[in-house]
């Protein structure tokens, strides 16, 4: 096992997140037909879960309209989702935001499939800032500048975006690993869903695909109380401070980061991601 960095220790301190049941989730046994959605928070996790749920039902919206999104693809590291996770009947949909070092060992010996969805980290940063007002599990900050500094330092819920992303990218080339970009999903949703189906060994009839597209649109998700988090309102979510499904676009960082912040970000990106091919990061 690789060394646990300070960022990860920070994450482990989070009550209810990894916290107390860390031993329990580390013993979790992946099965070969499991599908794991793996993301750094605010990269489009819920969109991917909605798409995978609809692929599973061949576009029939009954399941997504009757079962909350967190029960359809529970987070392995969240204490009160663990039972739902174990009770699921296969093929299971599973979610995680954890860095690769913290995943149960069984993932790497099973044939479970991993869909790693990444997004322009500047958009991840901005999305996370607005989300911190809605969700108390996120660090509460006084300003975007404060969130910006914490994000660059990796002093946020899941640690450094740079380390998290590089860690999971080390699985590139494995048959059981598919890396996708939020930006391509946004730009060409249909072909990206076809790519996902191919990876999962599934086929959809044209009308089934149309139904997947229709029911996973951001508007459909906002209108679906099983996906818009209104059921969680008042717990650690406070939807008075903003919607769970905010804008859903690529490049919103341009409306929020200053030129100086963007430049400082780019310098950090160059330094941390040096050595990885630029085509892995097709955004501006
Ligand atoms: P923004 O805050 O930039 O709008 P996660 O699910 O990992 O928390 O990611 C949340 C981000 O994904 C939010 O970004 C949200 O709007 C976006 N998102 C969620 N569902 C979407 C959809 N159907 N289409 C496009 N973007 C979506």
Written description of the protein model:
This protein has 284 residues and is an alpha/beta fold. The chain has 14 helices and 4 strands. The chain has helices at 6-12, 22-26, 45-56, 69-72, 82-87, 106-109, 121-134, 144-153, 161-169, 182-187, 189-200, 206-215, 218-223, 259-273, and strands at 35-39, 93-96, 113-118, 177-181. Strands 2-1-3-4 form a 4-stranded parallel β-sheet, sandwiched between helices. Helix 3 (45-56) runs antiparallel to helix 12 (206-215). The longest helix has 15 residues, at 259-273. The two termini are 35 Å apart. Residues 1-7 have low confidence and may be disordered. Bound molecules: adenosine-3'-5'-diphosphate. Adenosine-3'-5'-diphosphate binds at residues 39, 41-47, 123, 127, 130, 186, 216-218, 221, 245-248, 252. Keywords: Transferase. This is Sulfotransferase. Residues 33-276 form the Sulfotransferase domain. Belongs to the sulfotransferase 1 family. It comes from Erinaceus europaeus.
Tell me the layout of helices and strands.
Layout: H1 6-12, H2 22-26, E1 35-39, H3 45-56, H4 69-72, H5 82-87, E2 93-96, H6 106-109, E3 113-118, H7 121-134, H8 144-153, H9 161-169, E4 177-181, H10 182-187, H11 189-200, H12 206-215, H13 218-223, H14 259-273
Parallel strand pairs: 1-2, 1-3, 3-4
Helix pairs in contact: 3-12, 7-8
Bound molecules: adenosine-3'-5'-diphosphate.
């Amino acid at each position: 096992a690789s060394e646990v960095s300070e960022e990860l220790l920070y994450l482990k301190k989070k009550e209810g997140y990894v916290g107390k049941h860390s031993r329990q989730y580390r013993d979790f046994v992946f099965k070969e037909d499991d599908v794991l959605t793996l993301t750094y928070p605010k990269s489009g996790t819920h969109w991917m879960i909605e798409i995978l749920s609809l692929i599973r039902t061949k576009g029939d919206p009954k399941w997504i309209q009757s079962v909350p999104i967190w029960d359809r693809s529970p987070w392995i590291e969240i204490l009160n989702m663990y039972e739902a996770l174990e009770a699921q009947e296969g093929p299971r949909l599973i979610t995680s935001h954890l860095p690769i070092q913290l995943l149960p060992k069984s993932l790497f010996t099973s044939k479970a499939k991993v869909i790693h969805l990444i997004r322009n980290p500047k958009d991840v940063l901005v999305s996370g800032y607005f989300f911190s007002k809605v969700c108390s599990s996120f660090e509460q900050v006084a300003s975007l500048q404060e969130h910006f500094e914490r994000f660059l330092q990796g002093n946020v819920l899941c640690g450094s975006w740079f380390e998290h992303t590089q860690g999971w990218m080390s699985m590139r080339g494995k048959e059981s690993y598919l890396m996708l970009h939020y930006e391509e999903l946004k730009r060409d949703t249909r072909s990206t869903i076809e790519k996902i189906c191919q990876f999962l060994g599934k086929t959809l009839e044209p009308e089934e695909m149309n139904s997947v597209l229709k029911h996973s649109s951001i508007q459909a998700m906002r209108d679906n109380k099983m996906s818009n988090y209104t059921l969680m309102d008042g717990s650690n979510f406070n939807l008075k401070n903003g919607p769970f499904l905010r804008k859903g676009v690529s490049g919103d960082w341009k409306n929020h980061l200053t030129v100086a912040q963007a430049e400082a970000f780019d310098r950090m990106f160059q330094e941390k991601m040096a050595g990885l091919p630029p085509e892995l990061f097709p955004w501006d």
